[in-house]
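Milestone M4 deliverable, item 7.
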Amino acid sequence: MILFPIRTNLQFFICILTLTIVMNTDCTAKEQRTTLEDQTAVAVTIYNEDLALIKDQRLVTLEEGISRLAYRGVSANMRPETAMLRSINAESAFHVLEQNFDYDLLTPDKLLDHYVGKSIKIIRTNPATGKETVDKATVLSTHQGVVVQIGDRLESNPRGQFVFDHVPSTLRDEPTLVTQIQNKSAGQHKLELSYLSGGLSWQADYVAELSADDQQLDLLGWVTLKNHSGAYYKQARLQLVAGDVNRVKQDMQLRTLQKGRTALAMESADSMSEESLFEYHLYSLNRPTDIANNQTKQVSLLAAQSVPVDKEYVLQGQDYYYRSSYGNIGEKLKVGVYVQFENREAHSLGMPMPKGIIRVYKRDSGGHAQFIGEDRIDHTPNKDTIRLKLGDAFDVTANRNQTRFARRSASEPFNHVFEAAYEIELKNAKQEAVNVVVREPIPGDWKMLKESHQHKKVASGTSQWTIKIDSESSTVLKYTVLVRY
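Output delivered:
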């Protein structure tokens, strides 16, 4: 037998007693719940890449001491490591000791999983007599079906209604953040829970209508917001951040809810205000709005009318046929159609435009709007140019031929020297004249020897011509170039 000194035994007994009291306090502490009914304000700031900052304020009456507070109605896609709960009116007296995010939601399958090895009741109804019988069963397995033991027999997928004694504490009927708090000031607290969440995203969508003469357009900008976070944000203060925010990649993907039926809500009463935020831009809706779960909402971003537009036809070349002999390079080549405009206040714009897709329409002779093309734009600051490719021209085509190719003697510092001649026939079947930009990427060190139209060197490796073609006619561009590399 090993004997401890009296003092040591007493200290050991006190330590065991203290530990038992603490453990019992933690386990038996009554859980207090706060729901959306306690919510006084909520702010939602959504970023571009499936990320949102939620700030949820609630008015909760707390007792003094250590207790458990269950924060219900939070996002099921919460990143719990980012959660921060504080008391706004008694910050020094309020401390969070522990927090657990319970996102394992209550379902029949989850309930059965938690009762493996435990007893349940199965109520069966005789279809002939309507008499009910109750069997006590032990759940043995829920893998690929349910296996139970009733008395001395085993049954798989038994018929009947399963009756459970209680709901396991780890299952919740909705996502809940459970915190263990220490409160030194009893009474009403104004609590704010802030956290980052997935399941919320937004994008900018634009609709433009081109005028009959292709000289102007009317532009509408919409913010398309999607909420699949599993939470409902009532009368939220909505803000959107446009810009590429750096994020550390997670080892595991964020949890996502199964997407249900999507509802579309259109809100167009008030536009959004904009301000700079660090190296990004912040857009704020000027009124609160409801953001329901599994909802797609559109909010007006901007509206501009009679924006001046420049239309351009572009024939884009390739650099490979400047290095060898090719002859006929292509027939009926596509000529791209572009429109561009300036993002300026003088043109009823001037707000930094978030990246998104601009869809362009034009009315036919009957006054019906027809879709004529779309293009994606990047974040565009004030006073910058927006350029859209809407498609390829039907009535404007080109034929390209290499009429001569010869090698020339090379001298330092060049290893290869070529002289090549080209003809580009531009055809216009339209009933009005057009200007076509011919853009040729010429490799190496090059020099234009001859040309039928004056070129412009727009970059070190690019030659460009702007050629007018009369209605229902054609024009031939001829040039000879010396290429060295």
